[in-house]
Amino acid sequence: MKSVVEDLKMEVIVPLYYPELPRWLGVRPMAGILLHGPPGCGKTKLAHAIANETKVPFYKISATEVVSGVSGASEENIRELFSKAYRTAPSIVFIDEIDAIASKRENLNREMERRIVTQLMTCMDESNRLVQPADGDKESEISDHKPGYVLVIGATNRPDAVDPALRRPGRFDREIALGVPDESARADILSVITRNLRLEGSFDLAKLARSTPGFVGADLAALANKAGNLAMKRIIDRRKFELSRELTDEEHIEDWWRQPWLPEEMEKLSITMADFEVTLKELIFSNYL
């Protein structure tokens, strides 16, 4: 994953962040990236990461939001999406489950579905079209691209289902296969996922990465979230037990949860390795049911 991110920095992020560079060189910037891999492998997160790095407007849409039963409405949805992206360019359009709206045309039964694919290709072709030089300006003739570089990122679990015409250079110039992360990649993912969690000092991320073979990014995110909630429940249970021993008034015992948390109490609280280990066992067990 690190090598993929580094490649994207050079091929995508820098041209988006500094659009004057491809303009000056007269280079056509990358039109699109097709991300494919199993569910939960990080396709959406990678698209968001590119947008976060470049700080450009990010338009995310799923196939279900595009498709309409009204004739012509689906094509209009696509045109409006790209029109909005051009108005705020440079920008990114992210189409999740793109195979649902851009399947191979020979496999499509309805004319409407074919028109949707054609409309998407038309919009992508416009994303990097050269403009005519203004008033014979030589500098413009050399370097100016159509104002509004729009990078299109598509995500799919079924790349072979996507229309081949979309997968050619000039549309999706680059395809990135995201597989199940290895131990090193899982450690990197866990480091990002847990960076805002208050972990105990002896927490062993490397051990956790070794213990999660076959987990994709979504699985690791679910693990961290469930472990955090387990830790919170453990902490609250312990506090309830301690307060029930201190409070003698029956009415006050019932209101134990209203007792304020003091800053010095909070400082001692953390999510432990044991919380993750218990949660991991539960997740593995539930997958066998």
TrEMBL record:
Transmembrane segments: none annotated. GO terms for biological process: cell division. This is Cell division control protein 48-like C. One of its GO terms (molecular function) is ATP binding. Residues 29-182 form the AAA+ ATPase domain. PANTHER family: CELL DIVISION CONTROL PROTEIN 48 C ISOFORM 1 (PTHR48470). Belongs to the AAA ATPase family. It comes from the Eukaryota. Keywords: ATP-binding, Cell cycle, Cell division, Nucleotide-binding. It holds the Pfam family AAA_lid_3. InterPro entries: AAA+_ATPase, AAA_lid_3, ATPase_AAA_core, ATPase_AAA_CS, CDC48c, P-loop_NTPase. It comes from Vitis vinifera.
